[in-house]
């Protein structure tokens, strides 16, 4: 009879171990002949603890107790690591989850934070919209609603500029040149400061007549103690004088500054129909196009932002919010101007 092969039992000390992401990958580390396998640090600590216990007059530890100790030690280490990881992830999530919804996506706690932040952002948007509606709906003593940036505490000259001039189509060369110069001064002053000093600027720059301003002396205007230098910087004063000379060239080429400017919008104002203040842009592609053409002609202080402010003030674009009482008024003014021009054109053709 053939005797069944005997299998030798393997102790826990002679077991084969796997190295995790070691230099040999996840392959088995086999015990080479004549060499002992190096035991891991965890096993060494367990053996040391065994030796200390062996010295004491106690009963020897069984393999089961050893395995229980190892499992309890591993579980305690894993708990500590998981606790530190969740703490670090929660701290990172509190600072970065709102700005980037994909940050720390592997953590379940951050996913909850992301969902909460999403709901918070949606509620914030709704609250912002309601606030803007309230602001734009603030009534003055006259009971009329104005744009959101005009509040009951705004300066009276600023309110008057909004109610009477801003957004109204302008077809006078002097007024167009004045608004172009005032828009360029926004780099140094606010609309409120500019409008409060407007009468002094008109005296200094000859009511913004481009032909008369082109004849002014640079040195006299930029001399210390003059009214001009107390209002604007020397760079802005020189840019106004240089621009007036280039405007004179445009008048000689195109017939008037009005024709040159209004040709960019096909002689018809752009009706923006914005509902909220956040929708109003700082510049547009049309403003960039006009700015490039003016720079090509030698103008200074005519960035796209300045040009768009000029287009808003001169009525080339109607950026009044649709809830403002001035929105419909500017639309009517634009239609009236277009109708008047069409009638004059037909009359000229009939006379011919």
From TrEMBL:
InterPro entries for this protein: Adenine_glyco, DNA_glycosylase
Protein name (Swiss-Prot/TrEMBL): DNA glycosylase superfamily protein
One GO MF term attached to the UniProt entry: DNA-3-methyladenine glycosylase activity
A GO biological process held by the record: base-excision repair
Residues at which Zn(2+) binds: 147, 162, 320, 324
Pfam families registered for this protein in UniProt: Adenine_glyco (PF03352)
Biased composition (Basic and acidic residues): 46-55
Region listing for Disordered, in residue ranges: 1-41, 46-65
Organism name: Arabidopsis thaliana
Keyword tags: Metal-binding, Zinc
């Amino acid at each position: 009879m053939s005797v069944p092969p005997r299998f030798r039992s393997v102790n826990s000390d002679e077991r084969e171990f796997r190295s995790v992401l070691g230099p040999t990958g996840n392959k088995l580390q086999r015990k080479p002949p004549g060499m002992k396998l190096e035991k891991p640090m965890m096993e060494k600590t367990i053996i040391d603890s065994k030796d200390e216990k062996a010295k004491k007059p106690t009963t020897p530890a069984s393999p089961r107790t050893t395995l229980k100790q190892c499992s309890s030690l591993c579980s305690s280490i894993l708990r500590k690591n998981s606790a530190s990881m969740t703490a670090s992830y929660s701290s990172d999530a509190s600072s970065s989850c709102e700005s980037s919804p994909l940050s720390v996506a592997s953590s379940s706690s951050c996913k909850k934070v992301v969902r909460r932040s999403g709901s918070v952002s949606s509620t914030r948007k709704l609250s912002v919209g309601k606030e803007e509606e309230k602001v734009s709906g603030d009534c003055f003593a006259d009971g009329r609603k104005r744009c959101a940036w005009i509040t009951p505490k705004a300066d009276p000259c600023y309110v008057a500029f909004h109610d009477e001039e801003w957004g109204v189509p302008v077809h006078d060369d002097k007024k167009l040149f004045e608004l172009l110069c005032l828009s360029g001064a926004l780099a140094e002053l606010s609309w409120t400061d500019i409008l409060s000093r407007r009468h002094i600027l008109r005296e200094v720059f000859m009511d913004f007549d481009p032909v008369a301003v082109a004849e002014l002396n640079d040195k006299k205007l930029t001399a210390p103690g003059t009214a001009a230098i107390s209002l604007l910087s020397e760079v802005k004063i020189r840019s106004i004088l240089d621009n007036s000379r280039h405007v004179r060239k445009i008048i000689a080429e195109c017939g008037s500054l009005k024709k040159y400017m209004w040709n960019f919008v096909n002689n018809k104002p752009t009706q923006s129909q914005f509902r909220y203040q956040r929708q109003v842009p700082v510049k547009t592609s049309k403003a960039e196009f006009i700015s490039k053409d003016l720079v090509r002609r030698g103008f200074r202080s005519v960035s796209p932002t300045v040009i768009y402010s000029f287009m808003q003030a001169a009525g080339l674009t109607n950026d009044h919010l649709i809830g403002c009482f001035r929105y419909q008024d500017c639309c009517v003014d634009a239609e009236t101007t277009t109708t008047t021009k069409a009638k004059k054109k037909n009359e000229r053709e009939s006379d011919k």
